[in-house]
Recover the amino acids of this structure.
C-alpha cells in the first residue's frame, strides 16, 4: 500500500515537473510571439504611412502630367508640387511634435 502511494506520488511529481517545464516553454514562446506581433504592427504602420505618401505623390504627378503639356512644363510642375509636399510634410511633423 505504501509503495503504491509512493509510486503514485512519484508519478504526480514527475508529471507536475513536466507540466511546469511545458508551461515555462509556452510562456517564453508567448513572449517571443508577442514581441513579433508588436514588431510587425510597427512595420505595418510604417508601410501604411509610406503607402499613403506614395499614393499622394502619384496623385500629384498625375495632376502635373494633365496640367503640363510639354516636358519642361511637366518638370517645372513636378518641382512645384515636390516643394509643396515638402512644406506640407514639415507642417505635419511640426504639428506632431
Amino acid at each position: 500500500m505504501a509503495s503504491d502511494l509512493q509510486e503514485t506520488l512519484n508519478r504526480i511529481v514527475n508529471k507536475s515537473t513536466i507540466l511546469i517545464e511545458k508551461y515555462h516553454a509556452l510562456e517564453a514562446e508567448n513572449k517571443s510571439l508577442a514581441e513579433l506581433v508588436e514588431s510587425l504592427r510597427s512595420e505595418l504602420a510604417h508601410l501604411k504611412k509610406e503607402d499613403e505618401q506614395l499614393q499622394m505623390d502619384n496623385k500629384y504627378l498625375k495632376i502635373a502630367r494633365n496640367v503640363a503639356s510639354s516636358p519642361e512644363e511637366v518638370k517645372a510642375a513636378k518641382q512645384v508640387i515636390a516643394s509643396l509636399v515638402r512644406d506640407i510634410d514639415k507642417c505635419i511633423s511640426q504639428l506632431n511634435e
Observations:
- The mean pLDDT is 88.
